[in-house]
Amino acid sequence: MGSIFSVTNQKGGVGKTTTTVNLAASLAENGKKVLLIDLDPQGNATTGCGVDKETIEVSSYDVIMTQAKAADAIVKPEDLSFSVMPTNSDLTAAEVQLLDVKLREHRLRLALESTRDKFDYILIDCPPSLSMLTVNALVASKGVIIPIQCEYYALEGLSSLLKTIERIKQRANPTLEVTGLVRTMFDARNNLANQVSRQLINHFSKKVFHSIIPRNVRLAEAPSHGMPIIDYDRASRGSIAYMALASEFLRQQQKNN
Ligand SMILES: Nc1ncnc2c1ncn2[C@@H]1O[C@H](COP(=O)(O)OP(=O)(O)OP(=O)(O)O)[C@@H](O)[C@H]1O
Ligand SMILES: [Mg+2]
Predict the structure, then answer these.
(1) pLDDT of residue 57
(2) Counting atoms of ligand 1 from 1, which one is nearest the CA of 128?
(3) 9, 18, 89, 219: which to mutate for ligand 1, most atoms within 8 A of CB?
(4) Is 126 in the pocket of ligand 1 (CB under 6 A)?
(5) Counting ligands in written order, which one lies closest to the CA of residue 129?
(6) 3-256: which CATH topology?
(7) Contact indicator for 102, 76 with CB cutoff of 8 Å
(8) CB under 8 Å to 166, separation ≥6 — which residues?
(9) Predicted TM-score (pTM) of this structure
(10) Alpha-helix residue ranges (DSSP H) falling in 49-153
(11) What is the average pLDDT score of the chain?
(12) Angle at CA 11, nearest 5°, toward 236 and 150?
């Protein structure tokens, strides 16, 4: 049965979407069957995978809020090595609508039950908030991947994210765990980045992935072409870094199983 991971950090612009898209592509490159779920109303992962937000027939909104089947929302663009459950701004309404429905924290988990065995790994791109959408992602997940940009405020929001994870663990999903923290947009020449990186390792030790994602302009360009970095510029530092992260992730998963 497919293992589900949330890529989350309520801080905006830290590399969640970039990590979700490129980890998905790198896992697929390793022969894994992968589904990316876009759970952010911004729909950046949808666009980054080359899916047109304007032409989505069934979206993650329909899956969570109506009776739409997950299988009907999943698309597999021809040029892409993995499947996508896309979204668009309709999903904004779900934040409020979810407050009034039964089993509101479990909607996504329940919706995925019939589909998850078709995939090895399911990665969920979360919005930059600890909203009901993020809670739905965490309740459905086995693990949480937390992208961190190593700058001054990086650690500030982390404790409320960890508290949310702990609360969900106690209330709804006892096996949820932090899979790992990923340092993103890293600039090794920057003293502050190195300092924050050391702090992360001191606090979280083994939970910090060894693989570091460097700041790399090719990673920023790839989404505008609707491509993961591995298809856009395979030899770039960004592409090599995400392949290394995928290998490290797979080794960790094999060890745990
Ligand atoms: N390693 C990197 N090198 C250079 N640019 C990057 C890198 N990672 C991400 N970016 C760029 O930084 C911006 C923010 O990244 P991204 O969209 O992945 O963050 P996010 O956490 O998903 O943002 P949001 O909170 O809005 O969902 C984007 O323009 C992206 O292309
Ligand atoms: Mg994003």
Answers:
(1) 95
(2) 25
(3) 18
(4) no
(5) 1
(6) Rossmann fold (3.40.50)
(7) no
(8) none
(9) 0.98
(10) 60-65, 70-73, 91-97, 107-112, 132-140
(11) 95
(12) 50
As a whole number of angstroms, the distance between CA 26 and CA 33 comes to: 11
Q: What is the pLDDT of residue 67?
A: 84
**H/E element holding 145?**
strand 143-149
Torsion 62-63-66-69 (CA) sign: positive
Q: Which ligand is nearest to the CA of 229?
A: 1
47 lines ligand 1 (CB under 6 A): no
Nearest CA, atom 18, ligand 1: 15
Top-confidence residue, 160 or 246: 246
How deeply is 224 buried, as exposed, middle or buried, from its count of CB atoms within 10 A (0-12, 13-18, 19+)? exposed
| Distance separating the N- and C-terminal Cα atoms of the chain | 12
**Dihedral of alpha carbons 171, 106, 98, 35, sign:** positive
Q: pLDDT value at position 108?
A: 97
Ligand 2 is a single-atom ion; what residues have CB below 5 A from it? 16-17, 44
Query: Which atom belonging to ligand 1 lies closest to the Cα atom of 19?
Result: 18
**pLDDT tens digits along 50-86:** 999 999 999 999 999 998 999 999 999 999 999 999 9
